[in-house]
Design goal:
This protein is mainly β. The protein has one domain. Helix content is 0%, strand content 64%. The chain has no helices and 8 strands. It has an 8-stranded antiparallel barrel. Strand 7 and strand 8 form a beta hairpin. The protein is globular, with a radius of gyration of 15 Å. It starts with 7 loop residues before the first strand and ends with a strand.
Length: 127
């Protein structure tokens, strides 16, 4: 969290809790005055499979302070992801993207992200 009201940037790494899951980096601009988020997500889905697809998405959403001891901030973003396949299955399609988090004062905690029909429960870590 920021100790002032200025716009600031945060990068969050999402790592799936299951083998063959997904991962992503979520880059966010946080506006604490308006409690808004704006950013970009980039990652992989179905990791561990041959030719796992990658995705990118612009996103926006909201963030809120909780007042709780361990989880001091929650947030959610949404957007549209471009999912791309590596050769031999070359192609790209658009699908829904969503992500959420609950983090401590150091931006570490848990979260989820969804790309199309693929949803991943993750650990979240500030990078």
């Amino acid at each position: 969290m920021s100790n002032n009201d200025a716009l600031y940037l945060v990068n969050l790494k999402y790592e799936s809790e299951v083998v063959g899951g997904g991962s992503m980096i979520l880059r966010l601009a946080v506006d604490p005055i308006h409690q808004t988020l704006s950013g970009q997500a980039q990652g992989k889905i179905l990791q561990g499979t041959a030719h796992s697809p990658s995705f990118t998405s612009s996103c926006k959403g909201t963030t809120h302070s909780t007042g709780f001891k361990d989880i001091v901030n929650v947030g959610a973003v949404f957007g549209q992801a471009a999912v791309s396949f590596a050769p031999p299955a070359i192609g790209t399609y658009l699908t829904e993207f969503k992500a959420d988090y609950g983090v401590d004062k150091n931006w570490n905690g848990t979260g989820n992200f969804t790309v199309g029909d693929n949803t991943y429960k993750c650990t979240v870590e500030k990078v």
